[in-house]
Model the fold of this input.
Amino acid sequence: MIKNSAAEMSAALSSGATTSVALTQAHLDRISEVDGKVHAFLYVDTQGALEQAKKIDDARARGEKLGPLAGVPLALKDVLVQKDVPTTCGSKILEGWRPPYDSTVVANLKNAGVVILGKTNMDEFAMGSSTENSAYGPTHNPWDLTRIPGGSGGGSSAALAAFEAPLAIGTDTGGSIRQPAAVTGTVGVKPTYGGVSRYGLVAFSSSLDQAGPCARTVLDTALLHEVIAGHDPRDSTSINAPVPQVVAAAKSGDVKAMKIGVVKELNGDGYQAGVRQRFEESLELLAKAGAEIVEVSAPNFEYALAAYYLIAPSECSSNLARFDAMRYGLRVGDTDGASAESVMNMTREVGFGREVKRRILLGTYALSSGYYDAYYGSAQKVRTLITQDFNKAFEKCDVMVSPTCPTTAFKIGEKADDPLAMYLNDIATIPVNMAGIGGMSLPSGVAPEDGLPVGFQIMSPVMQDQRMYSVGAALEAALLSKWGSPLLSQAPELGGAA
Amino acid sequence: MSSLSRDDVANLARLARIEMTDEELENLTTEFGVILNAVARVQEVATTDVAATSHPLPLKNIFRSDVVIPSLTPEEALSGAPASEEQRFRVPQILGEEA
Amino acid sequence: MSALTYEDVISKYEPVLGLEVHVELNTHSKMFCGCSTIFGAEPNTQTCPVCLALPGALPVVNEKAIESTILIGLALNCSIAPFSRFARKNYFYPDMPKNFQISQYDEPICVNGYVDVEIETEEGPQSFRIEIERVHMEEDTGKSLHVGGSTGRIHGADYSLLDYNRAGIPLVEIVTKIVPGTGKYAPEVAKAYVAELRDILRALGVSDVKMEQGSLRCDANVSLRLIGSEVLGTRSETKNVNSLRSVERAIRGEMLRHAERLNNGEKVVQETRHFQEDTGLTRSGRSKEQAEDYRYFPEPDLVPVAPDAQWIEKLRAGLPERPSLRRKRLQEQWSVPDKEMAAMINADVLNIVEETVLLGADPTKARSWWLGEISRLANEKDVAITQMEITAKDVAEIVSLVAKGELTDKLARQVIEGVIAGEGTPARVISTRGIKVVNDDGALMAAIEKVCSEQSETADKVRNGHLPAAGALIGAVMKETKGQADAARVRELLLGHLGQA
Done:
């Protein structure tokens, strides 16, 4: 049952073949069975999940009309606040903190009857590409437990790949949904910026952060997308327009006459051989399905990484200032005679990890007087140039595509000491966040040299998210024909004795 | 401009209210040298005739009406407080003064 | 060291001023969230994830606050920026939950305005134009209670208690350009400017502008330069200036302090100082070794404000009467001589006099009570007139009673004294104290006859035409009637009785 898609589970619930309580329990059992190895979860809300499941079963029994995902379980990245449930953002500084309010994403999930199983592991405050920066230990890739599951949302993607949940929520600032999806063989979408409310999403980089749906299939992702997206008056940057029709697009998967733009600067040059191979092959499959492949150029993309590593740290240096031991979270050093200032300094030293501190200081520098124009100011100009590149390119095509990341999952510890090497994982995903457009990663197969999953990235213009789903669904269907069964059935079996 | 001295890094740590160890400061000084070199290339294309983006979307005038909505209860507000007294957040003695 | 006089200072130096005024708006809800702004609530009962800066919270701009700020800008003759943005001002302090303040930096909503003020000088009334650099929006901080020290101040406190009810209340900051050319009248000009601002803001209805309550705060910047010099001196900033009187005193005090240092060859330190109400002097704030770098950048959680021209014109059309025009109108309506008008403005009673007149009192009578007896009592108690127990309604009632003959002026003074002492409304004071005009001629005659027989020699003097002697007799009659007789009536009857009518 746990290996089904969310859509299949939903059908089983509607037909009465199973109950939400049974479904939820099955997933809780699976978590007990495998999470000791995977470590996708930081907190499992057994009681809360079963209560919610029971409520849905009762409502269904009363004949109430329920949404398509009512009663289906989900894993929530620990960067979104959930009332009275521990929310840590992967950091020691929030250990044990229970928010007194729900994020809008959680409120939407609850309204739709989705069952939240628990909070998943992540790089601390969403900073990282491997989940190794979590203060609570890394998550292990279900395909190979010695390898990273991607980051910052490695917990959510690993939970999907390990069948601990059929649905997950991630957040994406520079690729933190898409890159983990790519290296775990799952689907992840970053909606158009402003498409999903950020109210209750603990901010890392405010102008780049976006919560998004993750699942094992394109259709499941679309169903979840429609539950969480929509205008929120509590978020001034949220778009006041109807949610794009992503479910319809995912069901049709029609790419006939669609123009698919291959980005010259992101075509895989220098990427791992297997990654390139899978990318070329996916292009062929899409062409066979009726799409036209064109080449487009985005000359300013080469500056995107540099600009990102100025904008994101700058915004985070300000966003994380609130963690000061005064109103919530960790407090250390509060001994006789200690001042508020010293308590603040000590707490932040002990409570934040290395990557977070590195980025806070980098951001503080980039914003400081005398350096603003050269660093933060210049980076925001690069952003304008990147947006212009996308706009020009989208005149020639309906979506743009690239491999999601340059390599497959690397070993835990392999890049931990080389920040720049780590940052290069995001080279293909970052431009999407800079321009605020939509981005999806779906599995395109495994790399022959190491048998590890490879992701295919699709990028759509602002508020045209449905295009990603059309193309994604088409590719998924073509690949499924080719493989004969879903990719994840090739992943090693995790169950049994731990 | 692309390299920082250890004192510069220590000053940043002070501005960011983080009590760093000597070892951390040493490491960061080295790392910053590398990182700043890499990110400085944004200056190559950031000419004066390019406008800076501070929002990905061209939104403007997003307001709310001047209407009161229920607040948190004081218990909820203080629920995460490391220390509290008389329904207020208790903090250690403050040395500095308001700006 | 002989004490420097103010004359010494202005004979050698000329002051340059800069004034920053913060106004707390009277919106129902806060600047960026829907929490109530009501003053005096129990601690931390008006907070939410946004104004507490809980992780994940986001600000949303209060439309009324924008409107109020535009009104202020228009009333101060500013241009309204077609496009303005919020910015983060980053610094750490426990009363500021986000450890940054959402404010405006290089794109404020209103720029380049002016205010004209008039003050009384030895050479007659003089007008000064104060130029406004900018008007922008920001948010207020929480309130801290410092516990453990002896004075309740931050020095020597053991710990502090934070209440965030005030955090996030909308603030408007009004910044002047530098103000040279006030010469010896700098303190008066500054006071007049703040008073004028206050009147403008009150007329707009955007704030209750109570300096004592903190809804209008003034920071005064002062520097001195040698007369004739082009070079600006080093300035000091004085905070905690909580009344109009304090504005004047603080500036005068700073001018003296700067001059003393400069005369001694010492440099003026650029610093923030705190005004001390009790001494009229300023105390140095804790000096910061290094200036704080606020690392301003555009607020990514908010989108720009671009008020459309139609909205601005609609607001402009709805602006209330300018205080200076109102003053001219009232002066005409009430036929008030210039000196009296200036006295009313200086004593800050114009508004309450108008209130009294609107309740039906004769303008001259209203003015004479507020400027006369009530002012005198206020000075005695060393409080502002408007802080006294007595209201416009009370005075209007008293004026009416005197007009009807139910009170004499003398009795009215007793009633006023009683109301101010907290004994209640005029009616209550009258009944409790048994104040009553003795109108009864019979009773008056009885008293007159008694006094005349007791003081027969004086009475004879009056009979013989020596009228001034009547004064003593009238006094005695007043005493006899416990002061409740109408002195004019007594005189009439007495003279009649003594054949001098």
In short: Chain B touches chain A through 55 residues (CB under 8 Å). The mean pLDDT of chain B is 91.
